[in-house]
Amino acid sequence: MPPFSHPISFIEEAAPFVQLCWEMGWNEANGGNVSWRLPEEEIHGILNRRFPNTVLGDPVLLPEPHPSLDGEYFLVTGAGQYFRHAITHPAEVFGIVQIVNDGTAYQRHWGLINGGRPTSEFATHLVGHAIRKRVSNGRERIILHCHVPEFIALSFLMPLDSRELTMALWQKMPECIVVFPDGVRVVPPLLPGTVKIAQASAIELEKSRIISWSHHGIFASEEDPDKVFALVETIEKAAAIHRRILSAGGPQRGIDTALLTELTEHFASYMVADADLLKDQ
User: Fold this and answer.
1) Which of 197, 62, 228 is nearest to 132 (CA)?
2) Which helix (H) or strand (E) holds 34?
3) I want to staple 65 with a disulfide (CB 3.0 to 4.6 A). Which of 75, 104, 236, 250 is the partner?
């Protein structure tokens, strides 16, 4: 396949990323979704230069207002869209929308053609973006929700407890506590696409970039597509190792908590947060 190119640089970056998520087996059919908070001046300039005659969509009311996101542009995957079509049909798979009217509505600027609309999880994504924008001082911009199989399997094999899950993953590879020191926060099984799951997720997103939607998948926030992919990739590999250990009868040993503490001290400059769950013993 020839290299993918697109007049919108963010689509040029997002489409291969989304395609890779499908190739990894993380986003089957129309499962999962992505939203990316775009640099306002940059995307505004691109749209004005490349698509000067675009007719904007009518504002669509949001379930909850997000005044802290007013004026922000988001690249978002569409409801019912297949990640494997991202490169061949980008204007269907993706849309670029702006939050308007003091954070009470969104307005389509590009994509989502043929009557498309943002993912049904868009309301939860916006809750996540509002929280993680504040907590990370604007660093985090992209949220990936995907159905990583090994990670999902653990929600059927382990207690639905944030510390127990996090410790199990941290103790499988030394890199884990450095890559995700904020741990994984567990949200119990709830109906996707609802205000209820958004509210439950909001509580946990205050504490971590990563939440587990039990029996459903992962919901992770990071700076850009490359970093969020690496984050989920690391967690999924640790989950696979732990699941294999469980299938062999359970662990005989793990990385000692003293070594985990030593890792956090040695690699402190690389870590985005404190390993608070390590202290909650």
Assistant:
1) 228
2) strand 33-38
3) 104
Q: Is residue 121 within 8 Å of residue 127, measured between CB atoms?
A: no
**Rounded Cα–Cα distance for residues 131 and 192 (Å):** 19
Cβ-based neighbours of 118, under 8 Å, separated by 6 or more: 35, 76, 77, 78, 79, 95, 97, 106, 112
47-93 residue pLDDT tens = 999 998 888 989 999 999 999 999 999 999 999 999 999 999 999 99
34, β-bridge pairs: 144
Between the CA of residue 102 and those of 62, 148, 171, 237, what are the distances in Å?
A: 11, 36, 45, 41
Q: Which residues are catalytic?
A: 121
DSSP 8-state class, residue 118: B
Strand order in the sheet with 184-187: 60-61, 105-111, 94-100, 73-77, 33-38, 142-146, 217-222, 210-213, 184-187
**DSSP classification of residue 139:** -
